[in-house]
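Summary for the steering committee. One of the milestones for this cycle was to obtain a three-dimensional model of the protein with acetyl coenzyme *A bound, which we needed before selecting residues for the alanine scan. The sequence and ligand used are listed below.
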Amino acid sequence: MPTESLTITDNRTGKKYEVPIADGTIRAPDLRQIKTSDDDFGLMSYDPAFMNTVSCRSAIAFIDGDRGILEYRGYPIEQLAEKSTFLEVAYLLVHGELPTKTQLADWSTQIANHYMLHENIKKFIDGFHHEAHPMGMLLSTVGALSTFYPESKNIFDAATRRKQIHRLLGKMPTLAAYAHRHCLGLPYEYPDPRLSYVGNFMAMLWKRTGAEDRYTPHPALERALDILLILHADHEQNCSTSAMRVVGSSHPDPFCATAAAIGALFGPLHGGANEEVLKMLREIGSKDKVPDYIKRVKTGEMKLMGFGHRVYKNYDPRASIIKKAAYDVFAVTGTNPMLELAIELERIALSDDYFVSRKLYPNVDFYSGLIYEALGFPAEMFTVLFAVARTAGWLAQWQEMLLDKEQKIARPRQVFTGHRQRTYVPMAQR
Ligand code: ACO
């Protein structure tokens, strides 16, 4: 027996079992030996929403939710946000180490080589209604990429996998920018590989066709957007990353798995919360209405969007960095009138026992929308930006899952609560 183990007494049978503990976990299949009879299937653990279930071993992101710590591959998020760029962070997540100068130059070139979309993808985007949500457009066009690159299903070939990683990281900003321009009825702007990753993204979003030969991004705004992408690049086994891993576990190409992850991110309880925060601030309207709104939240009428987190039971470290970045952006764009309201909402919530006792703090989405709005994005684009950034993490996690010998197709169990063995009733007798 290992030195760390758990002794379980089954009070149904009086039998004792010794189950090894490793890394603070027991293996759920070890419970299956616990039976009341030979034909008993064996004990399982019941964990809706995976509140206490570890699904993988991962070396990518570390979170200590009680202390408000987030690290990518061991590097604190604060240092990466201050010193790094999104492309460098994407390399770190995918490859496990910070790149050398040559590696970063090569990585950036490989990704830039994939900025362009097949012209037929533009036709798909044209087909969407002008009021279509850009997340829906992104999800569908990422899924459609699967049909353009059939070789991408060769997921166990390292070179093919690498190429799809470059391809997705390269095409995500282009798809996002084209979705944005489609909503505005503007012609699409081809990518400009002479600009940085973020600068090119800004050019595709905002270059005035016919009025500008070359778009020059404002350095402070370019940096702020880069920081936002860094902060959103990975967050271990959240809902969308789990979707990426679960779908990826049946071995489709990475475009199919990424489309699934985008769908998961779209929900208002996950990445869609940043859009909801802005709607909420608009609904509240002014500082004097905050106490009344908080009262309604406390009666359970609605949730305070941008507050609370499954893992962080302390201030989300990303929210602190974003709050600071907001001031750098507002110094250029002028302040967002909703900022004062958000600060007041945070102040009142954090001094209220309802939020304090439940450890509900602002999460990454609470302030990000205010910056995005100041940068010129409509609310519908907020989650799209999240998806562009999170693609780096999704791909790193997908690759880690594929190379993990312990992983198999994801397939949870259930407790069956329905009828059994009923006799079919003909229509006339129902
Ligand atoms: N406003 C008011 N009450 C809340 C909030 C909130 N934002 N979040 C949680 N609570 C309450 C719950 O009602 C519950 O109260 P109870 O114990 O009296 O029943 C308690 O706090 C615990 O909450 P759970 O729902 O059990 O927490 P869970 O871990 O399941 O949910 C989640 C986490 C989904 C993030 C939740 O806090 C929430 O819905 N927040 C608002 C949406 C949001 O901002 N999502 C973005 C998350 S960050 C991200 O995905 C990038």
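Key point for the committee: DSSP finds 17 helices and five strands in the chain.
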